[in-house]
Write a structure and sequence with these properties.
The complex is a heterodimer. Chain A is an all-alpha fold. Chain A contains four helices and no strands. Chain B is mainly alpha-helical. Classes of the chains: A mainly alpha, B mainly alpha.
């Protein structure tokens, strides 16, 4: 039976879905009876979902065109080294 | 070939041409009939998803697997439906940020997850789709389309059918490689979708199942909402599995067991082991076929057929003429080989349906399936393919070539396409919109000046995000020249010891409006030290692979992984007060 420390040592790979089948079975066995690790794991998983889905730091549509024009003006003003 | 052959007419009407993959099978008409009937029941008719939505799912599945021939066909189909090319390009490059409504993005993510790694799908995924208001019949439909995608992919690859359209360079979507992390232990068993009661008298297909299995297996019962699909599946089983004209029934059952085992599908291993046992093959033999068919005491020809099927199922990019040659030299007729291909495709179809709907086993598993190596688990894993020195499909290749040949105006396409991505990365690192805009100009300028150094080993967008990440870090260094960004090691404990132990809400994203969630996440990310922030931006937001992120930041993979985990756990700490189950009451 693995400990909470063992679980935390493997949680990174587990979150990535990158653990061997037999390790996975052990981790899930631990989760099934350890509510603390279950909470940590579940909230970490949800953190990633919220982070990736939030649309954070998005460029406002209206800002895109002026910046593109600025960049292109700078590019046209210089020769690309070959 | 008889032009009035019914499936052919339906198929030609739908596509406007007769696809090469079907032309290649005209020597075994019953297979053609089975496949087109199944395709018609899933794809041609009107249903809860529009034709465009279905084609979008198929396009994303094909581009996700790096199959440019299939992707091109679906791309062309969507253009025919009137979808603008620019939008399709945005879709395949970054479907999460291409302006699709959130439920559509969610449905695509689910489809890609089911398509790339069926065993990882669980009740939580279906619940998530339900929270996005997808009806059970629509979810069922997405499952069927994914399953159909795999049938078609196996048959196209297995037959080496020539593409119907010249394959164009089509991007691989930014798939969430950590998507599997959505998968927790499967707290709830299936079936994930409730199905109406199946009334035997109203289903002519029932007799096929009764003949075949002696009962109606759960995987079919669970699909009762789609009677026409069940009919087509029964027909496919009758025409592909039961016919004894070419391969024997026993050989085909063996393919079903071996390929299901390779896919990690214990449901079908158990079901068909029982069927084979009724046909006189001991259960122990089926167990061994599932575990290692070469040690199952089969004769040479049976082993050869299974070698062929497993090669197609497990390593399709390596599959080819050599596999055909082996069977031909073993005395197999082409009709038999085509049948082995169709049987492999049908198995992949059935496995995917079962994974997607979570049909409950009819028989208990007798054996634990051997641990599935990643390569097999991720059936058509494109990352596997790319390590062999091939270059990824890159939608930017044309524009890059033009810029290199002196047409600097062509660079505008690249700026327009990637400005949001570059900006996002920079804002996440810098926190100030003004600085992010300035750094964005620098990033594109650097990319332009150093375009010759871009070797095409990664996608252009990945290379660009790496430049953005480093440009952002440089700005931070310049901003605070006297403070190091602390690139030394972290404290052994930093970020790793959980402090907040509070369960999060079931669906944290439903707690706040979209813009509130977004602002909480942005503030949370900006609270982290820069070295963790940049990793989250590159890896989780821009979804570079672990290796790509490590290379971009000039870190080793273990160091990157450690920093990534710390960043994620720190963000968890920061966000927990807002997303814990009771958080909303506290803050309101």
């Amino acid at each position: 039976m693995i400990s909470c420390a063992d679980f935390m040592a493997a949680i990174g790979d587990y979150l990535e879905g990158d653990v061997a089948a037999e390790v996975r079975v052990q981790l899930e066995a631990h989760l099934s009876h350890c509510s603390t690790c279950q909470v940590v794991y579940d909230s970490a998983r949800k953190t990633i979902i919220v982070l990736t889905d939030s649309g954070s730091f998005d460029l406002p549509e209206s800002a895109s065109k002026p910046i593109t024009e600025k960049i292109m003006a700078r590019i046209r003003s210089q020769q690309r080294p070959s | 070939m008889d032009q009035a052959f019914t499936p052919l007419v339906a198929c030609r009407e739908y596509f406007g041409y007769f696809p090469a993959v079907y032309r290649a099978q005209t020597i075994v008409l019953r297979l053609l009939e089975a496949e087109i009937s199944l395709e018609a029941s899933i794809l041609y008719g009107d249903s809860s998803l529009t034709h465009s939505q279905k084609e979008r799912l198929l396009l994303m599945l094909a581009s996700g697997e790096g199959r440019s021939d299939a992707a091109t066909a679906h791309y062309e189909m969507l253009r025919l439906f009137g979808e603008p090319e620019a939008e399709l390009d945005r879709l395949v490059t970054d479907y999460r940020h291409c302006g699709l409504p959130a439920p559509e993005v969610e449905l695509l993510s689910f489809t890609l997850k089911l398509g790339s790694h069926g065993p990882s799908v669980g009740a939580a995924d279906i619940e998530r789709l339900r929270q996005y208001r997808w009806a059970p019949e629509t979810i069922m439909e997405a499952v069927l389309i994914t399953a159909w995608y795999w049938f078609h992919a196996c048959v196209s690859i297995g037959l080496g059918a020539s593409p119907d359209f010249p394959p164009a360079a089509i991007a691989r979507p930014v798939t969430a490689t950590h998507e599997e992390s959505n998968l927790g232990p499967d707290w709830k068993a299936g079936p994930y979708l409730s199905a109406p009661e199946l009334v035997p008298d109203q289903f002519p297909a029932i007799s096929v199942f009764r003949d075949l299995f002696g009962f109606v297996p759960n995987v079919f019962r669970t699909q009762a909402a789609r009677p026409e699909v069940i009919e087509a599946e029964a027909e496919a089983l009758r025409l592909v599995l039961c016919a004894e004209d070419d391969l024997s029934r026993r050989q085909k059952e063996q393919i079903l067991i071996a390929v299901s085992a390779a896919n990690g599908n214990s449901y079908f291993v158990a079901l068909h082991s029982e069927i084979l046992s009724a046909l006189g093959v001991p259960l122990e033999t089926s167990d061994r076929i599932a575990q290692d068919h070469r040690r199952a005491g089969l004769d040479e020809t049976d082993v050869a057929v299974l070698d062929f099927a497993l090669s197609l199922a497990a390593d399709p990019f390596a599959f080819g003429a050599g596999d055909w040659a082996k069977l031909r030299s073993g005395g197999f007729k082409d009709e038999q080989i085509i049948e082995a291909v169709a049987m492999t495709g049908l198995t992949k179809f059935l496995n995917t349906v079962q994974f997607g709907i979570g049909a409950v086993p009819d028989f208990e598993s007798r054996i634990a399936l051997p641990a599935i190596p990643r390569k097999i688990a991720h059936l058509f894993d494109t990352r596997h393919r790319l390590t062999e020195g091939e270059t990824p499909f890159d939608p930017d290749a044309d524009a890059i070539a033009k810029v290199r040949s002196g047409d600097s105006d062509a660079f505008e396409v690249l700026v327009t396409r990637h400005s949001r991505r570059v900006y996002r990365t920079l804002l996440g690192i810098l926190g100030s919109p003004e600085e992010a805009r300035d750094a964005m100009q620098d990033t594109f300028l650097k990319a332009y000046q150093h375009l010759d150094r871009f070797e095409g080993r990664s996608k252009f967008s990945t290379w660009l995000v790496s430049i953005a990440g480093n440009t952002g870090l440089q700005v931070l260094r310049d901003r605070k020249p006297l403070q190091s960004l602390d690139y030394g090691g972290a404290d052994a404990d930093e970020g790793l010891r959980p402090r907040q132990i509070r369960a999060w809400a079931d669906d944290p994203e439903q707690l706040y409006s979209k813009s509130e969630t977004r602002s909480l996440v942005e503030q949370g990310v900006l609270k982290l030290p820069a070295k963790y922030r940049v990793v989250l931006m590159l890896r989780d937001i821009e979804q570079l692979s672990i290796e790509e992120t490590a290379a971009a930041l000039n870190l080793g993979v273990p160091a990157l992984k450690s920093r990534h985990l710390r960043g994620r756990l720190m963000l968890r700490e920061v966000l927990t007060p807002h997303f814990a189950a009771s958080a909303k009451e506290e803050t309101t």
